[in-house]
């Protein structure tokens, strides 16, 4: 399976709706449906059952959706690790802060951080 396939399963499991998933991934609904059929064919299982209120995952589909979460996380970590093997450190900085801190304190701290990086370069 390709990286995009794991993204499709992950997002579809979150949205439980093919149209919303296609919109979120910036692909057409027919293209997503076709890719989903190809994934089902590859694993020789039905992943979802379509209904009037969206999709319901089969047990096999739920397992693949959980695997999608793990695969996407693992692939992101691999990419970050390989990128960090260079002389410079790169990656995504994730912060969990309150709205107040994000609005009033964080901009000043990020500016100081950015200046300090320029000095190190």
Description:
The chain is mainly alpha-helical and 121 residues long. It has two domains: 3-84, Arc Repressor Mutant, subunit A; 92-121, no CATH class. The chain contains five helices and two strands, in the order αααββαα. The chain has helices at 3-15, 18-25, 29-43, 59-84, 99-120; strands spanning 48-51, 54-57. A hairpin with a 2-residue loop joins strand 1 (48-51) and strand 2 (54-57). Helix 1 crosses helix 2 (18-25), helix 1 (3-15) packs across helix 4 (59-84) and helix 2 (18-25) packs across helix 3 (29-43). The longest helix is centred in the middle third of the chain and has 26 residues, at 59-84. The relative contact order is 0.10.
Strand order of the largest sheet: 1-2
Which structural class is indicated by helix and strand composition? mainly alpha
- Beta strand %: 5-15%
User: How much is the average pLDDT?
Assistant: 89
Our count of domains comes out at: 2
- The helix content, as a percent range, equals 55-70%
SSE map:
Elements: H1 3-15, H2 18-25, H3 29-43, E1 48-51, E2 54-57, H4 59-84, H5 99-120
Antiparallel strand pairs: 1-2
Helix pairs in contact: 1-2, 1-4, 2-3
Summarize the model shown:
The chain is mainly alpha-helical and 121 residues long.
Task: Considering the chains and any ligands shown, give keywords for the structure.
121 residues, Arc Repressor Mutant, subunit A, 2 domains, two-stranded antiparallel sheet, 2 strands, 7% strand
């Amino acid at each position: 399976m390709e990286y995009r396939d794991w993204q499709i399963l992950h997002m579809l499991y979150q949205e439980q709706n093919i149209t919303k998933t296609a919109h979120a991934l910036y692909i057409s609904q027919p293209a997503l449906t076709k890719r989903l059929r190809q994934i089902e064919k590859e694993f020789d299982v039905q992943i979802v059952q379509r209904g009037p209120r969206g999709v319901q995952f089969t047990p096999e589909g739920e397992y693949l959706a959980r695997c999608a979460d793990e695969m996407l996380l693992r692939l992101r970590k691999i990419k970050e690790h390989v990128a960090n093997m260079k002389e410079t450190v790169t990656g995504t900085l994730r912060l969990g802060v309150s709205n107040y801190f994000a609005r009033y304190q964080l901009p000043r701290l990020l500016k100081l951080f950015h200046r300090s990086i320029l000095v190190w370069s």
